[in-house]
Amino acid sequence: MLLSFIAFAVAAQTAGLPPPAANPTHSVPSPAKLPPANPLAPPDGSDERAVLATVDKLLGGINTRDAAAIGAVLLPSASAAIVTEAANGPSTVRTLTNPELLARFQPGPETFDERIASPAVEIDGDLAMVWAPYVFRLNGKVHHCGTNHVSLVRENGAWKIASLAWTSRTTGCAE
């Protein structure tokens, strides 16, 4: 009886919706960014500056290949997801644990230079998100580019990175 009711309720809620296969596989950029429903951040911009300062520390650690500096702004449970977009093939997704992520930034002869542009910051209380296009240069030459998505939480008054995700492509990158 209960299963019949659930099946009836789900069928009523999904009536008229296209089947999942009809949904696009890639999202389409919206013409305008929507604000959070009920933001709790103060209007003076201080939280936005603090969130971006944490992201700047992350980028500073990447650019100096300083795993300790990167680890200082991550939660111990932080993880990363990388979506690599092949020029003529399917995208691949790879996830990294905190130790795997930090292992990517050991000292070495190559110089790293990752810069973001036009970051969008959204805050709701102690939860924040930064979305920003980036270009990564290796030894001064464009290596790849994409978009960074950084999720942060405020813990004991300090913004910490809970997770990172980014796309990575080698085509269409700005010099």
Description:
The chain is an alpha+beta fold and 175 residues long. The longest helix is centred in the N-terminal third of the chain and has 18 residues, at 46-63. The protein is built from four helices and seven strands, in the order αααββαβββββ. Strands 1, 2, 3, 4, 5, 6 and 7 form a seven-stranded mixed beta sheet that branches.
Q: What's the N-to-C terminus distance? A: 63 Å
How much β-strand is present in the residues? 35-45%
What does the largest sheet look like?
7 strands, mixed
Question: SSE string, helix = H, strand = E?
Answer: HHHEEHEEEEE
What is the overall number of helices?
4
Quick check: average pLDDT?
Answer: 82
Helix content: 25-40%
Low-confidence stretches: 1-31, 37-41
Structural class from helices and strands?
Answer: alpha+beta
- Based on Cα principal axes, name the global outline: globular
Beta-strand segment tally: 7
Structure characteristics:
about 180 residues; 7-stranded mixed β-sheet; alpha+beta; 7 strands
SSE diagram, text form:
Layout: H1 2-14, H2 46-63, H3 67-73, E1 74-85, E2 91-96, H4 98-103, E3 112-116, E4 120-124, E5 127-138, E6 141-155, E7 158-168
